[in-house]
Amino acid sequence: MSHLLSALDRIIVFVTGLALLAAGGWALSWLFEVEQVRDLARYYDPHIYRDFLASQWYPVALVGAAAAALVCGLGLASANLRRRRFDRLLAAETPAVGGISVSTTRMARAVGETLTSVPGVESAPSVATIDRGRKVLQWVITAQPDVDVPTLTSAIDEARDDIEMALPRVDVHTRFLVHLRPVDGA
Which end of the chain, N or C, is more open, meaning fewer C-beta atoms within 10 Å of its C-beta? Predict the structure, then answer.
């Protein structure tokens, strides 16, 4: 997710939240007969509303609003559902040698296999994504509840150090998420 998409999502959620709060506040104020709300409701003219529904512009406005909502909704949904991934990193580049490309998929799979060799670790699948403009290698480590946590953290630190050593001066972040299975009978 990019910074722009994240900011746009937050703005939309904020505006929607404010609209829902205003609607809920209006409804509660009407229910409890708040005088200011009742005074505002007196300005409502049902003839204007009926005239607009009967006018020739109403179907055009309705179709236009529906089309705009559909396009915006599809655009936002596709932007939020699109996965931004990368498969290769340029590890080193010099004028004499050129660039060395590293397959992040293979490297991440090898790190995951190393992490699964820790007793109590069931799996460690990986994914290489671009999150807010940063390249991130992520592992979700699923382990039994009785896993030796110091041994696991030591293996994670060693894996992170190995990646930093294998890819010097490469702007890639590592993220290790540890998921412990629930204790049986809990």
Answer: C
Question: How many residues are recorded in the chain?
Answer: 186
CA distance 127 to 132: 15
How many whole angstroms separate alpha carbon 36 and alpha carbon 136?
A: 54
**Can you give the pTM of this predicted structure?**
0.57
| Digit-coded pLDDT (tens) for 85-107 | 677 766 666 566 667 777 788 88
Cβ-in-10-Å burial (0-12, 13-18, 19+) of 26 comes to: middle
- The domain 88-180 having CATH identifier 3.30.530.20: the answer here is no
- Please give the structure tokens belonging to residue 73: 């909704």
Nearest alpha carbon to residue 1 among 168, 131, 139:
131
- Which amino acid type is present at position 166? A
